[in-house]
Amino acid sequence: MTKPQKTAPPTLLFHSYRALTALLAPLAYRRVSAKLADQGVSTTRQRERLGHASQPRPDLDAGAALIWFHGASVGESLAAITLIKRLHRCLPEARFLLTSGTATSAEMAAKRLPDCAQHQFAPLDSQRAVTRFLSHWRPDAGIFVESELWPVTLSAAKARGTRLALVNARLSAKSVAGWRKKLPTARFVLGLFDLLLTQNKTVARDLCALGANPERVFPSGNLKAGAAALPQNDDLVAEMKRGLAGRPLWIASSTHNGEEEIVLAAHRALLRDHPDLCLLLAPRHPERADEIAQEIAKAGLSSVKRSAGTALTANTQVYLADTLGELGSWYALSPIVFLGGSLLPIGGHNPFEVAQAGAAVLTGPGYSNFIETFPPMIKAGGATEVSNATDLAQAVDLWLTQPERLQTARTSARTFIDVQSGQLDTVVERLIQSLNLKQAI
Q: What residues are annotated to the active site?
């Protein structure tokens, strides 16, 4: 491993945080393990959150590297898998470890990781858990995705000589404001990274203002543009098509509390001119299904729930897709997708998954987490911005009644993400250079 580089010194706040997380680790573990257990994760795998490995470290050829990626959940893990596949082309002897924190991301990783990689749940950000994890895996490099700034984990890895990168970095305005109140600690944490690749220039400026070394910070676009399309279940798609029997369908995906009411109002308006139209509603948090079903009934619309196993029929006006891991199948059913988390100031969700499935995108104005993506995508014609139920109904109606306009939007969306994904080669080159990965081959 390489010799650790000098960085800003740890602060009293960091030491206090490290002591507090050590004390709270048993309580935190009880909470996270219970959630994983509810989702069917075995006890052995739950203990990965305490740093206990459930798999052996891979055998490596002399000079080959073990490269560790970490992403919070599914979206970040998909971006990581894209980079793992690209890096493996350049570093065929390297092996990869992906960590994440959710059962859904673990299930996805099991299906999509290449043979050169394996998945573990990330250790809690406490000294004992992190030490166990690092002592077993001994990664040569650690690559963290988006906003995963875990001080104890990063500090311990750096102390062992692990070179670190933050990729696809983004920080909300709230996070930036919070870090500004503790600048010495921000300078210490950001100084642990050898490379910081941001989604846009604004994030790059914010990181530099918080103390990151400007020579290590580079805007690189959104890596999610290069991720593979979401997987789809062909049997499920065929079953849904049989249930639709040729009826038109539009999708409202990843909606949040307060948005379903707007979406349902738009659907009611659309039914006046398109009486056989069906809405597939896939909320961001499926556990809200009962609440949403009540809203649908209140709107005077008929519905069935995916989780109940009720078949879609000719009388179904709203299909409530209250399950996880099936978005790829839903996107295969319709080229018209409204992406939630955007009608309210929530930050928006990933439009690349929609465009990769061949659909055009509708979004509200609250897409602050994708500020580098939506404006140029809208300008290119691959997405349309709406502000309320009337706008949403009019946009869907336009694409239903003018299929040539819809096809143009779909083509524009696909072209846009193809251009964005071209930046991956530059990202891979920077990672290899900045993390000294060439020395491993």
A: 76
